[in-house]
Amino acid sequence: MKISDKLAAHQTFSFEIFPPKGDLPLEKAFEIAGAMATCGPDWISVTYSAGGSGNSDNTVAIAGSIEEKLNTTALAHLTCMGSTAADVDAYVAALAADGVQNILALRGDRRPGRGVVDFAHASDLIAHLRATAGDAISIGAACYPEGHVESPTEDADFEGLYRKQEEGADYLVSQLFFSNDDFYRFREKCLRHRIKLPIVAGIMPFTSVKQIQRMAFNCGASIPAKVVKRLVQAGDDAESQAAAGVEYACEQLCDLAANGVDGLHVYSMNKPAISAAAYEVLAGCGYLAR
Ligand code: FAD
Questions:
Q1: How far is the CA of 163 from the centre of ligand 1 (A)?
Q2: Which of 112, 115, 173, 206 lies at a C-alpha separation of 20 to 30 Å from 121?
Q3: d(CA 42, CA 73)
Q4: Is 20 a pocket residue for ligand 1 (Cβ < 6 Å)?
Q5: Residue 289 lies in a domain
Q6: Ligand 1 center–CA 122 separation, angstroms
Q7: pLDDT digit string (tens) for 74-124?
Q8: Which tens digit of pLDDT belongs to each residue from 174-212?
Q9: pTM, full prediction
């Protein structure tokens, strides 16, 4: 089923997984997706990694098996930096053959040796997908409540976002953030910039001091004092830090649920325990009662 139809019908709840890296078997990803599917999410998204770990080939296989074996909607990510239009067409055809109708259209991060080929921006990819696949697919795009790290100005960021909408994106999924106020402010600014697409809020639990520092640097998310305090209170113990992260993420989810969000997406980092905790807290606060 198309995610755009789900978002039109109700507030959604979804998870993300990433294909296993290195020698981890594909079966491990199927197992993780199977465990997450027991919570009945609206969809499970599967990330795409062009270059680096080189696991993009597995995105189609995992997304296809989520649809086919788990009877759950899959959202396949696709980055276009360094890709040709023919590469994209082949990927879309492979997804269609596996019954996957949902694509998250992304540019991908800049990496040495991977430059622009046929697409400079996600909006170019969206235009191509819409022109070639029409309404056969539902297209999502990324948004950044605190701005994209490369954007010179806030207005430039919103111009890029507006372009995604105008080229045919159906909805937006946000980058992680640790202060819900950033998300609420962003939502209001979208309206002022004529961006009317449903916005799914993406939440990732922090797991350690190191991990949150890396995330802050990579995606420009700011770390509020209340998060620092939680980490300090958790002390040096790795388990306590991870538990504090899940607890904080669950509080964020509940607050977003109470504030009329279009959808909640949990960056569950291949950990079914995280998706289960998110499910429980959202069931408890009535978000999942439809
Ligand atoms: P773009 O929309 O192209 O934006 C990139 C920059 O260019 C921004 O600063 C924007 O303001 C600017 N811009 C946009 N359009 C124009 C224009 N027409 N002219 C000039 N400037 C413009 N990465 C992966 O590799 N694999 C994944 O699976 C993946 N999944 C993600 C899922 C989500 C929900 C999010 C939020 C990010 C994900 N990413 C993933 C990371 C993403 O690829 C990076 O954030 C990347 O740097 C930007 O992607 P984009 O699609 O937003 O690009």
A1: 12
A2: 206
A3: 7
A4: no
A5: no
A6: 6
A7: 999 999 999 999 999 999 999 999 999 999 999 998 888 788 899 999 999
A8: 999 999 999 999 999 999 999 999 999 999 999 999 999
A9: 0.97
